[in-house]
Amino acid sequence: MRLLFLQAFVGLVFFDLVVRRRDFSTMLRLVRTRKVASRTASPEIVDRVCTALNNACVWYPKSVPCLQRSAVGVCLLRHWGIPAKLVIGVRVMPLLAHAWVEVDGKVVNDIPRVQQYYRYLTSD
Questions:
Q1: Closest among 72, 89, 88, 77 to 30, alpha carbons compared
Q2: Per-residue b/e over 25-50, b at no fewer than 16 CB within 10 Å?
Q3: Each residue of 52-77: b (16+ CB within 10 Å) or e?
Q4: Residue among 80, 81, 109, 87 nearest 31 (CA)
Q5: What is the pTM of this model?
Q6: How high is the pLDDT of residue 63?
Q7: Which of 32, 38, 41, 99 is packed most tightly, with the most Cβ within 10 A?
Q8: 43 CB contacts (<8 Å, ≥6 apart)?
Q9: Cβ count within 10 A of residue 88
């Protein structure tokens, strides 16, 4: 669990620097090019990765936006052999955007109802 926490924390730092020095398109490109590792994933790895990422967000010295958190989550899950997708959705009234992670069409790092509140803008 410590390794997952450390990977999540380093991922938060990395994507924070990417966004600060470049733009969101670079972040999205980095997520899209991250391939799913060819390892056999245990069924509980999704919960373990999400828990480690939540704990890393608590200890991160800044507020972590949903896009940064979801990008790290997707990369970690793919690293551990889970075919995760980064989903960005939008709501018209009031105008809001939100990002979350899905595995096999199920939301894993947010409330399951988030799919009902936001229309899919993009998914990778």
A1: 72
A2: eebbebbeebeeeeeebeeebbeebb
A3: bbeebbeebeeebebbbbbbbbbbbb
A4: 87
A5: 0.92
A6: 95
A7: 99
A8: none
A9: 19
Q: φ, ψ for residue 83 (rounded to 5)? A: -80, 75
- The enclosing H or E element of 121 equals strand 119-123
Rounded Cα distance, 85 and 75, in Å: 9
Indicate the domain borders of the chain: 2-123
Beta carbons of 99 and 88 less than 8 angstroms apart: yes
Separation of alpha carbons 5 and 25, rounded Å: 26
Report pLDDT digits (tens) over 104-123.
999 999 998 999 999 988 77
DSSP 74-114: HHHHHHTT--EEEEEEEETTTTEEEEEEEETTEESSS-TTH
What is the per-residue pLDDT across 76-92, written as a single tens digit (0 to 9) for each? 999 999 999 999 999 98
